[in-house]
Amino acid sequence: MSNHSDGRQPDWDIDRATGERGEQWALGIREALTLGSIEVKNDSVAMRTGNLYVEYECKRGGIYQPSGIQTTKADIWLFVIVENQLGLVIETGKLKQLCLS
Predict the structure, then answer these.
(1) Within 13 Å of residue 57, how many CA atoms lie on the same side as its CB?
(2) Which tens digit of pLDDT belongs to each residue from 41-67?
(3) Is the model's pTM score more than 0.85?
């Protein structure tokens, strides 16, 4: 008899492998925090607007120059949302892909 209301029987081998991949990803984030290759951005209006602000360039001396996601050396970005109660972690490469699409 299944403990799941939909009658699904979990496949523990597959579920375990998925969980272990998630744990490895989380360990990578922990390593990035320890080594300092994470960029932290506070976005105080994201919950209200439904959007995250990602800086791509900045106007300096009257001309736009690359900045933010274009120039970061961080491996991971952490968006802090809702006054330090919610965060979104994303690999910098994936964030760059999303910003360019």
Answers:
(1) 9
(2) 998 888 889 998 999 899 999 999 999
(3) no
